[in-house]
Write a sequence for this structure.
């Protein structure tokens, strides 16, 4: 008898769970819906965003005109940098002219005054006056330029040529934009140097030590002149002339200095 073997592939089993990896049915899924109020709010926000963008473009600052006696290009670059750094300052509707002018003077100490005028729709005019270089100041192996009010406005440039140079023997540090000496000291030196030159005395070096009240002027005569800067330069020059007449009559020449710091009197050595 021959045994017959039949291979079975297995019979399907019905009613079992779906095989792994198959996609779940989406039947019955729902998406959240916006309420009418929420829809209106979103629409309003969209309209406001578009309107804000349009207004921003309509009044955007695009043209900057600078009126200045010099350095127009450099000042224009400074203004453009400040306005582009702020969304508010880059639009004529929100531009704060006073704040922009203050920041411009902080960024550029050589500016004495700043005024800003709007020109609708896209332009401003920046009118500036520059500080007047009046004196060179040497301290800490650095030379600076001072304005008429004694403020440090920068390092020497072509405009500083010919200005009196004062050496600070105490080497006190100074900073650009800050006042180094009083306006009276500046005025004293400005009057002193040409006043002495008119009398035939050339100043070759100016020095202070511990205080700006005492000023030493080395001259082409071979001796120094000592001044009290709290007094008027004209008064001390007048005292110097009186001493010069006396010395000429006595046929004497000071070997070291003439001290003019006491009103109406003079000492020499």
């Amino acid at each position: 008898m021959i045994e017959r073997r039949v291979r079975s592939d297995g019979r399907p089993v019905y009613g079992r769970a779906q095989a792994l990896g198959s996609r779940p049915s989406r039947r019955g899924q729902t998406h959240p819906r916006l309420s009418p109020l929420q829809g209106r709010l979103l629409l309003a926000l969209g309209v406001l965003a578009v309107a804000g963008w349009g207004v921003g473009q309509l009044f955007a600052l695009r043209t900057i005109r600078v009126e200045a006696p010099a350095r127009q290009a450099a000042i224009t670059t400074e203004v453009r940098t400040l306005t582009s750094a702020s969304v508010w300052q880059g639009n004529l509707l929100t531009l704060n002219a006073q704040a922009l002018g203050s920041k411009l003077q902080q960024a550029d100490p050589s500016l004495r005054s700043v005024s800003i005028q709007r020109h609708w729709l896209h332009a401003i005019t920046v009118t500036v006056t520059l500080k007047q270089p009046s004196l060179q100041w040497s301290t800490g192996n650095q030379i600076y330029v001072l304005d008429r009010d004694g403020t440090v406005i920068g390092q020497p440039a072509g405009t500083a040529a010919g200005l009196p140079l004062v050496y600070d023997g105490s080497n006190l540090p100074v900073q650009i934009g800050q006042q180094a000496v009083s306006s009276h000291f500046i005025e004293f030196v400005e009057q002193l140097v040409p006043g002495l030159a008119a009398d035939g005395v050339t100043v070759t070096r100016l020095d202070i030590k511990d205080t700006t009240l005492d000023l030493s002027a080395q001259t082409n005569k071979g001796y120094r002149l000592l001044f009290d800067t709290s007094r008027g330069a004209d008064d001390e020059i007048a005292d110097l002339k009186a001493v010069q007449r006396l010395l000429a009559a006595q046929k004497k020449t000071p070997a070291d200095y003439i001290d003019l710091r006491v009103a109406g009197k003079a000492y020499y050595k």
User: Anything to note?
Assistant: The chain has two domains: 58-130, 135-268. Residues 135-268 form a domain with the Rossmann fold fold (CATH 3.40.50).
